[in-house]
Amino acid sequence: MKKIILFTLFVGLCSFAFGQSKVVCCGKPSATRQFAMLASSSKFRMAHKNPLPIHFQSAIGTAVTYKTADGKESAAYLLKAKKATNNYILVIHEWWGLNDFVKRESEKIYNDLGNVNIIDLDLYDGKVATTREDAGKYMQAVNEDRAKAIINGAISYAGPKAHIATLGWCFGGGWSLQTSLLAGKKAVACVMYYGMPEQDVNRLKTLNADVLGNFANKDQWINPKVVAKFDADMKAAGKKLYLHQYDADHGFANPSNPIYDSNATKDAYANTITFLKARLK
Questions:
Q1: Residue 15 pLDDT > 90, yes or no?
Q2: Could you tell me if 107 and 60 are in contact, meaning their C-beta atoms sit under 8 angstroms apart?
Q3: Residue 9 in domain
Q4: Which carries the bigger pLDDT value, residue 49 or residue 79?
Q5: What CATH number is attached to the domain comprising 97?
């Protein structure tokens, strides 16, 4: 009987529930892997409506490539500052991939911030989803080592004196925090929109940047309980989290999303610009 009770307790402690989806943590999957695993749930996939079409053509954005430590190259989208500056924002896309929404949003941030370089990373290596089925496949197929190679390549591309801010939504929200962790002392700011937080307090202790978190109270997966734990973990790590929670759903800041919430988006965006301006001087 004791063995049965201990086994039951062990299983209970090793499962972390997000809505009705469970992510087994005994093997210590990373925070980003835990989020990717959610795509196995049909409920999670169905909660993401297929995006409305957005077409954006920039006069200033350019495609660039850079070498990565795994012996490959990565493509990215660059908005180059008008005057030489060491201020960079590394932007990580939603689970849809590096699409026109990301490029359009990056250019808006670029114009509102002033003199800054913005690099839109592509963790999908060129794949862009237009259906939730493909988005789930692409997100689950991301190789963590390859993703880190892409990120580290962008950090090197920015240069040894770069001041790096990171920003991302959904899938990219979690990777925004991971990018700031990888950037080390170059990191100056991190913005997360409804992304999976890092859950290892010891890793959070290595973070060099303040974090602005824009989360949705109706999100069934990155829900208020997950956000509250992140807040507590950041405090335990001695790090600063500026937390904003909205009566909205996951994906609220993307106008191509049928559940787009304009009021929440405006407030989150205003807070984001203020936060970044204060740290990219």
A1: no
A2: yes
A3: no
A4: 79
A5: 3.40.50.1820
Nearest to 226 by CA among 6, 23, 10: 23
Q: What is the rounded CA–CA span in Å between residue 181 and residue 251?
A: 24
Tell me the residue range of the domain where 195 lies: 30-279
The mean of the pLDDT values for the chain is 90
Determine contact, residues 193/170, Cβ cutoff 8 Å.
yes
Helix residue ranges, H only, the chain? 2-13, 31-37, 42-46, 100-113, 132-141, 144-158, 171-183, 201-204, 224-237, 262-279
Q: Is residue 217 part of a domain?
A: yes
> What is the average pLDDT across 49-73?
91
pLDDT tens track for 110-134 = 999 999 999 999 999 999 999 999 9
Q: Domain count of the chain? A: 1
Looking at residue 102, the DSSP 8-state letter turns out to be H
